[in-house]
Every structure is written in C-alpha cells, then in structure tokens.
Amino acid sequence: MEKPQKKKGTALQDLTTKQRLFCEYLITHQGRCTNTEAAVNAGYEPSRARIEASELMKQSHIQSYLHKRMEEVNKAYSVTQGNFIRHQAELSKKLVKEGKTEKAAAFEAMIGKAMGLFIDRKEILTRNLTVEDKMNRKEELIKQAEHMRKINALIKE
Fold first, then answer.
1. CA gap 130, 34 in Å, rounded
2. Which among 131, 89, 96 is positioned nearest to 110, based on CA atoms?
3. pTM of the prediction?
4. d(C-alpha 47, C-alpha 40), whole Å
5. Sign of the Cα pseudo-torsion (127, 129, 130, 136, in order)
6. What single DSSP character describes residue 15?
C-alpha cells in the first residue's frame, strides 16, 4: 500500500503518489483524455483502470484536489496585461530571430498599445456625411477589419 504524500499548506494531505499523478494527468489534459487513460498513465493496472478511475472520482479528497489545482492552473493562464505583454514580446523575439521582422512589427505595435505607449484614436463624425461618404467609410472599416484579421492570423501562427 502506498503511503499518502504529506504536503504542508494544503488541506489535501492524504493523496498517494498514484492519486496525485492521476489528478495531474486529468488537469494537464483537460477534456482531451478519459479518466481511464489518466489512471493507466498514473500507473494503475490497465485491466482495472476504468474501475480504479471510477472509484477515485467518487472520493471527496480527489474532487477537492482536482478543483483546487484546476483553479491554480487556470489562474496561471489567465490573460493579464503583464502576461499579454510578455507573450507578445516572446513571439516578437522569435520572429526576429527567424528573420521575419515584418511580422514582428505587428507584435511590437500590440505591445506598445498594451503598455499604453500610444493609443489609436479616431473620431468619426457622421452627422453631416452624405450617403456616398458613409458608404466609403463603410468600405474603409471593412478593409481595417480585414487587416486586423490578418494580424490575428499572424498571432496564431
């Protein structure tokens, strides 16, 4: 029988190594694995993994651990200004190293905006515009939206 791991500072001090591995696998593969796969990965016997996983998921200390750790993981990946700027800077540096400086410029612009170094401000007065002017403005906005879609596509690469 495995001894539970004692971790100070948590109310969940009675998880065994296998139980912790089971939980961590579920957390790191959220929605991309089954409980049975997590049990096998944690070292439970494959022939009993489905049963073991089912029993584990019924235990309150397992549920508490999963809930607490998922909150920690999700909090670590939440988007903050600092996280956003750091991530954009990393992507920009990577592109520059690859010699793609033209693509890096989009990231640099986003970093500047996020840091408040400059603000893209436009005032549009439409009260006295003709129908033709409004249609031209609509076309401009459509082009700008397309440009932003291209920038977003670069970010996702």
1. 60
2. 89
3. 0.47
4. 9
5. negative
6. B
Helix (H, G, I), strand (E, B) or coil at 114: helix
35: its two tokens:
């409980």
User: How far is residue 88's CA from residue 110's CA, in Å, rounded to a whole number?
Assistant: 8
Cα–Cα distance, 25 to 3 (Å, whole number): 20
User: Percent of the chain beyond pLDDT 70?
Assistant: 82
Which 8-state DSSP code applies to residue 13? Answer: -
The radius of gyration of the chain from alpha carbons, rounded to an integer in Å, stands at 25
Query: Are 124 and 137 within 8 A, CB to CB?
Result: yes
Q: 101-136 pLDDT, tens per residue?
A: 888 888 788 777 777 776 666 666 667 778 888 888
